[in-house]
Amino acid sequence: MAAKWSDVEVLVKPWFDQGLQPDRQELVDLAFKEDASDDVIDALDSLNGKPVPSLESLKEQLAKNGQIGA
Question: Is pTM, for the whole model, over 0.85?
C-alpha cells in the first residue's frame, strides 16, 4: 500500500526547511526514530542513495516509484 504524502511531508519537512539534503538512509533512519508507519518507511526506502535536494523533489521521486497516494 502507498504512503500518504501528508504523512511523509510532516515527517521530513523540518529537515528541508533547514536547507538539509538528506539521503535515503537518513530519511529511513528518521522514519524509524519517529515511529512512522510501515508505508512511510517503505516509501522512503524506495529512494536511490543520492541526496534529495528538496521536498518537491522527494515528492516527485516517491510518485515516480509509485510509493505515495493522496
Answer: yes
Quick: pLDDT tens for 7-38. Answer: 999 999 999 999 999 999 999 999 999 999 99
Report the C-alpha gap between 10 and 33 in whole angstroms. Answer: 14
Label residue 35 exposed, middle or buried (CB < 10 Å: 0-12, 13-18, 19+): exposed
Q: Which amino acid is residue 44, in one-letter code? A: L
Q: Provide the domain count of the chain.
A: 1
Q: Which domain holds residue 40?
A: 3-69
**Which runs of E-coded beta strand occur in 27-69?**
68-69
Phi, psi of 37 (to 5 degrees): -65, 160
Nearest to 4 by CA among 45, 28, 37, 29: 37
Rounded to an integer, what distance in angstroms lies between the CA atom of residue 29 and that of residue 31? 5
